Amino acid sequence: MGEEDNSTALFAECKWTNEKVDLSILETLIRRSELFPYKKKHFYLFSKSGFTNGCKEKAAELGNVSCVTYAEMIKD
Protein backbone atom coordinates (compact mmCIF):
# COMPACT_ATOMS: atom_id res chain seq x y z
CA MET A 1 0.00 0.00 0.00
CA GLY A 2 1.19 3.53 -0.82
CA GLU A 3 2.02 6.36 1.50
CA GLU A 4 -0.92 8.05 3.21
CA ASP A 5 -1.74 11.53 1.92
CA ASN A 6 -3.22 13.81 4.58
CA SER A 7 -3.21 16.92 2.39
CA THR A 8 -5.69 15.80 -0.31
CA ALA A 9 -9.42 15.18 -0.11
CA LEU A 10 -12.22 14.22 -2.46
CA PHE A 11 -15.66 15.76 -2.01
CA ALA A 12 -18.68 14.44 -3.93
CA GLU A 13 -22.37 15.10 -4.42
CA CYS A 14 -24.92 12.80 -6.06
CA LYS A 15 -28.25 14.00 -7.44
CA TRP A 16 -30.87 11.48 -8.56
CA THR A 17 -33.46 13.88 -9.97
CA ASN A 18 -34.92 14.65 -13.38
CA GLU A 19 -33.36 18.12 -13.32
CA LYS A 20 -29.84 18.97 -14.36
CA VAL A 21 -27.35 19.81 -11.62
CA ASP A 22 -26.72 23.55 -11.67
CA LEU A 23 -23.90 25.81 -10.57
CA SER A 24 -25.41 26.35 -7.10
CA ILE A 25 -24.86 22.66 -6.25
CA LEU A 26 -21.18 22.93 -7.14
CA GLU A 27 -20.81 26.19 -5.23
CA THR A 28 -22.41 24.65 -2.12
CA LEU A 29 -20.10 21.63 -2.29
CA ILE A 30 -17.05 23.90 -2.55
CA ARG A 31 -18.28 26.06 0.34
CA ARG A 32 -18.82 23.00 2.54
CA SER A 33 -15.34 21.71 1.69
CA GLU A 34 -13.91 24.86 3.22
CA LEU A 35 -14.79 23.40 6.64
CA PHE A 36 -11.85 21.02 6.14
CA PRO A 37 -8.17 22.04 6.11
CA TYR A 38 -7.00 20.09 3.04
CA LYS A 39 -4.55 21.82 0.73
CA LYS A 40 -5.63 19.92 -2.39
CA LYS A 41 -9.30 19.27 -3.06
CA HIS A 42 -11.00 17.33 -5.81
CA PHE A 43 -14.72 17.52 -6.47
CA TYR A 44 -17.04 15.00 -8.13
CA LEU A 45 -20.62 15.66 -9.11
CA PHE A 46 -22.77 12.70 -10.12
CA SER A 47 -26.08 13.38 -11.87
CA LYS A 48 -28.92 11.29 -13.25
CA SER A 49 -29.94 14.01 -15.72
CA GLY A 50 -26.75 15.88 -16.58
CA PHE A 51 -25.46 19.37 -15.82
CA THR A 52 -26.35 22.93 -16.75
CA ASN A 53 -23.94 24.86 -18.97
CA GLY A 54 -23.07 27.12 -16.05
CA CYS A 55 -22.05 24.16 -13.92
CA LYS A 56 -20.00 22.59 -16.71
CA GLU A 57 -18.26 25.87 -17.47
CA LYS A 58 -17.32 26.48 -13.82
CA ALA A 59 -16.08 22.89 -13.48
CA ALA A 60 -13.86 23.33 -16.54
CA GLU A 61 -12.59 26.68 -15.23
CA LEU A 62 -11.66 25.24 -11.82
CA GLY A 63 -9.97 22.17 -13.28
CA ASN A 64 -10.39 20.00 -10.17
CA VAL A 65 -14.07 19.13 -10.74
CA SER A 66 -15.39 16.02 -12.50
CA CYS A 67 -19.00 15.94 -13.68
CA VAL A 68 -20.25 12.40 -14.23
CA THR A 69 -23.65 11.54 -15.71
CA TYR A 70 -25.60 8.37 -15.06
CA ALA A 71 -25.12 7.41 -18.71
CA GLU A 72 -21.35 7.62 -18.22
CA MET A 73 -21.55 5.49 -15.07
CA ILE A 74 -23.29 2.60 -16.81
CA LYS A 75 -21.37 2.81 -20.10
CA ASP A 76 -19.43 -0.32 -21.02
First and last CA, distance: 29 Å
Number of domains: 1
Q: Largest beta sheet: what is the strand line-up?
A: 1-2-3
Q: How would you spell out the order of helices and strands?
A: EHEHEH
Low-confidence stretches: none
Strand content: 25-35%
Helix proportion of residues, in percent? 25-40%
If you compute it from the alpha carbons, what radius of gyration comes out, rounded to the nearest whole angstrom? 13 Å
Sheet with most strands: 3 strands, parallel
Whole-number mean pLDDT: 93
Oligomeric assembly: single chain
CATH topology: Trna Endonuclease, Chain: A, domain 1
Principal-axes geometry comes out as globular
The CATH class assignment is Alpha Beta
Topology:
Blueprint: E1 8-15, H1 23-33, E2 40-47, H2 53-62, E3 65-69, H3 70-74
Parallel strand pairs: 1-2, 2-3
Describe the structure in brief.
The chain is of the alpha/beta class and 76 residues long. It has 3 helices and 3 strands.
Describe the overall structure.
The chain contains three helices and three strands, in the order βαβαβα. With 76 residues, the chain is α/β, with parallel strands linked by helices. A three-stranded parallel β-sheet has the order 1-2-3. The longest helix has 11 residues.
Which descriptors would you attach to this protein?
about 80 residues; alpha/beta; Trna Endonuclease, Chain: A, domain 1; 3 strands
